[in-house]
Design goal:
The chain has 606 residues and is of the alpha/beta class. It contains 17 helices and 20 strands. Strands 1, 2, 3, 4, 5, 6, 7 and 9 form an 8-stranded mixed beta sheet that branches. Strands 11-13-16-15 form a 4-stranded antiparallel beta sheet, with no helix packed on it.
């Protein structure tokens, strides 16, 4: 989320007035909703909570929440409390000190909230109301009673915000219904979230509210999910929504499934070529789809990906292999895929390490989901930045799951958080070196900082830096990361040699055949073939072609089996070079074999 996002949760469950039934849910509502909205991998909101506040404090916090905002801000205000209707039909939100006969003085009027929403400069404002309204109290309470309906949505739609700003109101129930807590209205069970807020939290936390599976939970997605969930739990409770908003408002990232991109289909001419009876035409179509797969516009690339997957499933082996090679270029390839933060002092500033995502734009477009609460991920231009929270001691081990349009990948993270270091001894200030006295010098030590007294004119010991095991491992991995591309290059060279020697052999064979034709009945094809030297290049062609295919197959296998050692570019180069080598070597081997068979069969008769 790139905009500034703020949420305020107001939860009142205890009231001084005995006529206001104590609510069980608000405290649970506030804790559960705060957690999911604040999670940087879900809502990424800055969240404030007001619990059991007086009417004066509620008004102050609400007005302060809407003040000093900009068009880039998205605001979310959530009420979990009693809602009361005055004799004149005005809706009020009950505070801890609300006196029902004195609503104007001791409660927060909906007009006040509506005015704050209307006057804010924030670009988008969302209001969630999980309240029992006055209509409900007219049925079951002797102390608090109101006549007629409380049309909540109408109360907030009277004054629309300034032009260009969007607003939305979602209520837990309509004007004449209870907002159920759990599955009953009584207060004789343990605290649990209300049906409405539970649905909001569950939909955001699990990602199930991402109904269109595009990786984001929009306001419309969330309302549809909450509506269905609440109606399934309590058919007598009906959530309502009113909104005036341009475009979609994404309330949260989705933890469900992979990223979905609305694809732009490939041009009709390209689709016709894909269905052609001619193999070479279909091959050319795959090459064009491969080019479109690299497109910077993700819908165009996604359209090409979907067509390539269809080809890989349904076409002949040779064409399907080309499509598969192209699809391999958009596999998620984080580098590195294992992060070790080493030993960190408890309470130290959050450490971070960078992860680079390789490949075309479609391969870099993914969703990162940390599986542990101490992990945090921020997007960067080249990939991701991983942070580790050092609040708790112990060995930390967890994964970050990356979900792309077609596959998933995992980044494993480890760290050891130990006790905070004790402050070390302070060294005395160093005197001027011209006086010939010794001076203190801090020398890093693996266990602690040590103060060493050293004469200013003493010879300095040379600093050496031995080759560490980690450095040797890095060198070994660098060698491994070059192996497959080198083998692929060798395979391509041998394939080219195969084609060259085949042409040489065919030219010599043609010369021998022509010579045999001129010699008439007295001629011998075997002598002419030996004279023109057709057999040696033919044998070399068969050997180099077979070796090229073997080396190419080994290079591709090595990339697949040791993915962690290869960058996206190295893997892509390997697949490309081996594909070209295969397309050169296989036809050459077939032709060479046919020429050899023709010679063996025809030499006895000619």
């Amino acid at each position: 989320m790139t905009d500034s996002r703020h949420a305020l949760i107001i939860a009142n469950d205890q009231y001084a007035d005995q006529g206001l039934k104590k609510l069980r849910a608000p405290a649970q509502d506030a804790a559960a909703l705060e957690k999911v909205l604040h999670d940087p991998q879900i809502g990424d909101f800055e969240v404030g909570v007001v619990h059991n506040a007086s009417a004066d404090l509620m008004r102050r916090r609400i007005q302060g929440f809407f003040n000093d905002r900009s068009r880039a801000d998205t605001l979310l205000l959530h009420f979990s409390c009693h809602g009361l209707k005055s004799e004149s039909g005005e809706l009020y939100f009950a505070a801890s000190d609300t006196d029902p006969p004195l609503l104007a003085a001791t409660a927060v009027p909906s007009q006040f909230v509506r005015s704050c929403m209307s006057s804010t400069r924030a670009g988008r404002t969302v209001l969630f109301l999980d309240c029992c309204y006055g209509g409900a109290f007219s049925r079951g309470s002797s102390s608090v009673r109101a006549s007629g309906e409380v049309n909540v949505l109408e109360s907030f739609a009277k004054d629309e915000p300034a032009s260009g700003r969007g607003w939305a109101v979602i209520t837990a129930s309509d004007s004449m219904e209870y907002a159920f807590e759990g599955n009953q209205l009584a207060d004789n069970s343990a605290a649990q979230p209300s049906v409405f807020t539970h649905a909001v939290v569950e939909g955001l936390e699990t990602g199930e509210a991402d109904l269109d599976e595009d990786g984001e939970v929009s306001l419309d997605d969330l309302y549809e999910y909450v509506y269905r969930h609440v109606r399934e739990q309590n058919p007598h409770q009906t959530p309502k929504k009113a909104a005036e908003m341009h475009g979609e408002l994404h309330l949260a990232h989705s933890r469900r499934g992979r990223i979905k991109i609305v694809a732009i289909p490939s041009p009709l001419s390209l689709q016709v070529a894909m269905n052609s009876d001619d193999v070479l035409t279909r091959q050319g179509a795959v090459m064009e789809l491969r080019r479109r797969l690299q497109h910077t516009e993700l819908p165009v690339a996604e359209g090409a990906r979907q067509h390539l997957e269809e080809v890989a499933r349904n076409d002949i082996q040779q064409i399907a292999d080309l499509a598969t090679d192209a699809l391999n270029e958009i596999r998620l390839a984080p580098s590195p895929d294992h992060l070790d933060f080493g030993r960190l002092p408890r309470g130290s500033p959050s450490r971070k390490q960078a992860v680079t995502m390789h490949g075309p734009p479609l391969a870099r477009h993914c969703m990162a989901q940390p599986q542990k609460s101490w992990l945090r991920v921020d997007p960067t231009l080249s990939g991701l930045e991983v942070h580790v929270d050092t609040a708790a001691e112990g060995h930390l081990s967890g994964d970050i799951v990356l979900k792309g349009v077609a596959d998933e990948s995992v980044i494993h993270v480890e760290a050891v958080v130990g006790p905070a270091p004790e402050p070390g001894p302070r060294a005395e200030p160093a005197p001027d070196s011209s006086d010939g006295l010794t001076r203190p010098r801090h020398v890093p030590n693996s266990k602690r900082d040590t103060v060493v007294l050293e004469h200013p004119h003493a010879p300095r010991r040379p600093k050496t830096r031995p080759m560490t095991t980690a450095h040797q491992t890095h060198t070994d991995q660098s060698s491994l990361s070059r192996r497959a591309p080198v083998l692929a290059g060798a395979a391509l060279t041998l394939a080219a040699a195969t084609v060259f020697t085949l042409i040489w052999a065919i030219a010599a064979a043609v010369g021998a055949v022509v010579e045999r034709g001129h010699a008439g009945p007295s001629g011998n094809i075997e002598d002419d073939v030996h004279t023109y030297g057709a057999l040696p290049p033919l044998a070399v062609c068969l050997i180099t072609g077979a070796v090229a295919l073997v080396i190419g197959a080994f290079a591709r296998h090595d990339v697949g089996a040791r993915q962690e050692h290869y960058t996206r570019q190295a893997a892509s180069s390997t697949y490309t070079l081996t594909s070209i080598a295969k397309w050169l070597a296989i036809p050459a081997l077939i032709l060479a074999a046919l020429v050899d068979i023709a010679y063996l069969v025809g030499s006895g008769y000619w």
